[in-house]
Amino acid sequence: MKINTVMSVYAIISAIFGVLLLLVPAMLISLYGPSLDAQAEVLYRFIGGTSLGLAVMTWMGRDADASKSRDSMLLGLTVLNAVSAIVVVMGALSGVYNALAFAQAGLFAIFTIGFFMVGKANMSTSMS
Fold first, then answer.
1. Helix 3-23 to helix 38-61 angle, to the nearest 10 degrees?
2. Is the pLDDT of residue 125 over 80?
3. Other Cβ atoms closer than 10 A to 93
């Protein structure tokens, strides 16, 4: 598995979710079960903006040379996706989200593993 591939796929998926959360948050989230009030819609749009920021960061960093900065980015993405997987599973188990949330949790888990593996395999000598 290559850093470029993992980061490129993550960037594309993050961009898609980011745009959808910015433009049609209620429609997207309704697929997972809940309906949104005005405050939740604004919060999901913030998440969409964050997702777009992550998409830009991973797309622009996908060919970065080994460095502390790249290693830090991979570690941060690993933690972000691991925590997100846990939060989504908790939401599904508590009944906030329907079973479709487990697919989203699976996606977060796949990226957690992917970022962990490429980060560990390609850690710059300055971090080890």
1. 150
2. no
3. 11
